[in-house]
Amino acid sequence: MIHVCATCGTSYASGAIPPGGCAICNDERQYVPPTGQRWTTREAIAARHLNSWRQHAPDLFSIVTTPRFAIGQRAFLIMTPAGNILWDCIANLDAATRTLVEALGGIRAIALSHPHYYTTMQDWSDAFSAPIFVHADDRRWLMRNHGAVRFWEGDSFDMMPAIRLIRLGGHFPGGAVLHWEKDNGSLFVGDILQIAPGADRLSFMWSYPNMLPLPASVVAAMARQIDRYGFDRMFGAFEGQDIWSGAKSIALTSAKKYISHLAED
Ligand SMILES: [Zn+2]
């Protein structure tokens, strides 16, 4: 039986529950609730939750689990002429989701921003015969080995036509965003870049639940990477984190602001 951490959604290989608890939640970038570690199963999640869909554009859907499960992030189904991409992942892969994704053409490739969203990506890969692309610098956070996982290295990786993964680091060493060239360009950022509630500015953190910031030098390096690519839209990990125009300028201005707040008087 596969065990799934109820706090972060990470799935662990069949057999014994990890003796030390969930390694992802024991890390300072996540947390163990005061009530203690809790495990669940994929079947229990599917029995108590369902996935809701939002269509952002004719070729762009997001999928989120309701009522919220674990971290509560959304995954995106990006439809390109070369095939569909699942960007980031959610733990609940229920029968309805399988049927709907299949009807939309399946999944050609899965790509992840960082380990908090790896969840049950191995099951999504099995269901749609899709390779999984994660950055090699986060290799140690893969809790369930799988033959479909491909580790990419360096600062960028041309995954498919018009689709590129870019490593920004920050929250995780291999923290990645997805650049889609279509129209004026879109950047899918997970929470490697955190879109603020007004969808008009960003933040940059090392640990969100524990509210630990990133050093100024790291944010400056992230901004330099971002500056190399053209994009107008940005989509974050949570519902409402959608920027429809001016996203690049918002990203660069926000980085500058953040760095100025870290500076000494
Ligand atoms: Zn966990």
Description:
By secondary structure, the protein is of the alpha+beta class. It has one domain: 4-Layer Sandwich (Metallo-beta-lactamase, Chain A), CATH 3.60.15.10. The chain contains six helices and 20 strands. The strands form five sheets. Strands 4-5-6-7-8-9-10 form a seven-stranded mixed beta sheet. A six-stranded mixed beta sheet has the order 11-12-13-14-19-20, with no helix packed on it. It has a three-stranded antiparallel beta sheet with strand order 2-1-3. The longest helix has 16 residues, at 247-262. The termini are far apart. The structure holds zinc ion.
- Kindly, what is the distance between the CA atoms of the first and last residues, rounded to a whole number of angstroms? 55 Å
The CATH topology is: Metallo-beta-lactamase, Chain A
CATH 2nd-level architecture? 4-Layer Sandwich
Strand content bin: 25-35%
Strand order of the largest sheet: 4-5-6-7-8-9-10
Q: In this structure, how is the largest beta sheet organized?
A: 7 strands, mixed
Number of domains: 1
Overall form: globular
Please count the helical segments: 6
Give me the CATH superfamily.
Answer: Ribonuclease Z/Hydroxyacylglutathione hydrolase-like
Please tell me the overall pLDDT: 97
What are the segments in which pLDDT stays under 50 over at least 5 consecutive residues? Answer: none
| SS content category | alpha+beta
- What small molecules does this complex bind? zinc ion
Please tally the β strands and state the result.
20
What is the string of SSEs from the N terminus onward? Answer: EEHEHEEEEHEHEEEEEEEEEEHEEH
Highest-level CATH class: Alpha Beta
